[in-house]
Amino acid sequence: MKLSIILSVVLFVIVSDGAVVFPADENVAYPEVHSPVGHIRGLRAEDENYSMFMGIPYAQVDPDNLFGNAKPYPKFESTFDAFNDSSICPQEEEFNNTIVGSLDCLHINVYVPDSASDQNRLPVFVWIFGGRFAFGFPGRFLYGPSFLVRHDIILVTINYRVGPYGFMCLDIPEVPGNQGLKDQVMALNWIRDNIEAFGGDNTAITIGGNSAGGMAADLHLYYGEDENLFHKIILQSGVSLFGGIIGRPDPNAPFELAKHLNHTSSDVKDALSFLATVDPHQLIAATLELEMSNFIPCIENQFENVQRFITEYPLNTYVPRVKDIEVLIGLNNEEAYISISQLPDIMFQMSDFVQEGINRNFDFEDEDELYAQMHDVVTHFYFGDQDISAELKQQIIALRSDYYFNYPVLRTVKKYLENGVQTMYLYMFSYSGGRNFSKHRVNITGGGAAHADELGYLFDISYMDKPLDPEDQLIVDRMTELWANFVKYGNPTPEPTELIPVVWQPVTRDKWHYLELDTELRVSTRPFHARTAFLDLFYKHNEIYEIGYRTKPSSGSNIV
Q1: Cβ of 290: how many Cβ atoms within 10 Å?
Q2: Which residues are known catalytic residues?
Q3: d(CA 180, CA 186)
Q4: Residues with Cβ < 8 Å from 441, sequence gap 6 or more?
Q5: What are the DSSP calls for 440-491, one per residue?
Q6: What angle, 0 to 180 degrees and rounded to 10, lies between the N-to-C axes of helices 353-361 and 393-401?
Q7: Is 535 exposed, middle or buried (0-12, 13-18, 19+ CB in 10 A)?
Q8: DSSP state of 83
Q9: Residues 505-520: what's their mean pLDDT?
Q10: Is 387 exposed, middle or buried (0-12, 13-18, 19+ CB in 10 A)?
Q11: pLDDT class for 28, splitting at 50, 70, 90?
Q12: Which value, in Å, is the radius of gyration of the alpha carbons in the chain?
């Protein structure tokens, strides 16, 4: 790493939320790198053996097209002080439900262990945050690096546009859709071109994420055109085959938003020009008031001289690149635990959970009799002849977990095997402890591991500031070593150790090996095998009704 240590006299103010670290001493050693984009000065982590380069701009929103593709950030004319990881793109954030953020947000954070150097280039793990493509941010408030970088890997967390600025999808070339995903492509290009300056190995880059972050990483594997941007992938409860999360262009969105903000127009460019003058917080508020949830990845229409990202539903797309990519993929054992366990008892009698699961993935329009039959089939499989009530919470958790998360993940495993993947590791996270992210947030206990619960054991989350008890520490140690081993070697258990005394075998066509991460590590095969076998038959029987199914490929797409 081309790194020098400089001394500066700077006065900073300390903030309490962990978003920015400021030196307390006036005479502080600052790490500095000399990158292709210019000099970048970072901070030393307090009492830790790594350096932090935070808030580095990799791109900038086009001021003439706020809802379109971003532009590369120019080279730094002077040394850039990478001290601040607090940038957030416009959104309603998930903790206090306040509207925050600015469009000056296309930044990355790079965390570098002291072991990195020109003579010892370290592999790189690029983290993409989740949040339904509507919210999220990459700072240390959630994604603290200390658990991972101690294993001699470089961690990079990237920011990208969400909501209307990142996923407005129209029938015009200026706003074709998936701008947030294209932001990520620009970030990956920046990392490949600059990470060597930090002591990183740009031929050993792993991308990954949880939930929508995992889905985004998966979409890069499906549709990314540059094969040199990453070499391994980690998908945590997030894949491209999630039902209902890829849509078609919605040309009415700008008109509805403009009208809600007292500007009536029938010309899309006029509506967009007006929306560009609206304060981003006001625009986000309008999307919430209109309950607009259609800002998601979409299949882009084809325009001359405009590069498309998603060209077809993933359901219908080959993934030939998976032959050359090592994959770590998995899920949590009770993904839907929180959404079901918090429901009042009356909702169990009022809600149709079977209908919800089917409609998320299938369209039986004009097939009322068939739909009724399929509804009965699913009901009898999960509940027998019992009436739906609060006493059936576990079965309802299983149903919702399967349709929303488990089956898409396991179906992806099958698809990647069919597409020739050579190395793929499957896990199930089952541990319930003090750092389960989602349950900690809503202050509930019990049950297994809910959606996103594993994040507290991979990242040093700032507000989880209590000392780790021995069981939680063991999960942190094991999980971060397994993940780091995969990033380094493409094998999470290159050899058994006292900490990890098992061999995690990859999935094969004949045996779907997986590792269950709990207080005890357990190796087994085919998680949820009975439910998965049922859903295999259900999906096959109803394949022509699955959302996204097509019998003939459009130009440039491939059917699997």
Answers
A1: 13
A2: 211
A3: 10
A4: 95
A5: HHHT---SS--TTTTHHHHS--TT--SPPPHHHHHHHHHHHHHHHHHHHHS-
A6: 0
A7: buried
A8: B
A9: 97
A10: exposed
A11: low
A12: 23
Closest Cα partner for 81 from 103, 59, 102, 57?
Answer: 57
Give the pLDDT confidence score for residue 29 in this predicted structure: 75
Q: How far apart are CA 446 and CA 353, in angstroms?
A: 22
Written as one letter, the residue type at 63 is: P
pLDDT digits over 203-246, tens only? 999 999 999 999 999 999 999 988 899 999 999 999 999 988 89
What b/e sequence results for 298-324 when a residue is b if at least 16 CB atoms lie within 10 Å of its CB, and e otherwise? bbbbeeeeeebbbbbbbbbbbbebbee
- Please, are residues 481 and 151 in contact by the beta-carbon 8 Å criterion? yes
Residue 554: the pLDDT is 40
Nearest to 461 by CA among 154, 107, 157, 117: 157
Question: Is residue 128 pLDDT above 80, yes or no?
Answer: yes
Q: Which amino acid would we find at residue 547?
A: I
Q: What is the pLDDT of residue 47?
A: 81
Percent share of the chain, pLDDT over 90: 87
* Cα–Cα distance, 49 to 114 (Å, whole number): 6
Other C-beta atoms closer than 10 Å to the C-beta of 344 total 8
Instruction: Report the residue count for the chain.
Output: 560
- Residue ranges covered by each domain of the chain: 3-243+295-312, 251-293, 320-430+473-481+490-517+526-545
End-to-end distance of the chain based on CA atoms, in angstroms? Answer: 44
Q: Is the pTM for the entire model greater than 0.85?
A: yes
Phi-psi region of 185 (alpha: psi -120 to 50; beta: other; left: phi over 0): alpha
Considering only 209-218, 441-450, 551-560, which range has the smallest mean pLDDT?
551-560
How far apart are alpha carbons 465 and 462 in whole angstroms?
A: 6
Confidence of residue 421 (pLDDT cuts 50, 70, 90): very high
Distance CA 313, CA 415 (A): 14
230: left (phi over 0), alpha (psi -120 to 50) or beta: beta
- Top pLDDT among 217 and 552 is at 217
CATH 2.60.120.10 describes domain 3-243+295-312: no
Rounded distance between C-alpha atoms, residue 146 and residue 140, angstroms: 10
Instruction: List Cβ neighbours of 388 (8 Å cut-off, separation of 6 or more).
Output: 348, 349, 351, 353, 396
Question: Could you give the CA distance from residue 416 to residue 489 in angstroms, rounded to a whole number?
Answer: 20
Residue for token digits 């969105």?
253
Segment 17-37 mean pLDDT: 65
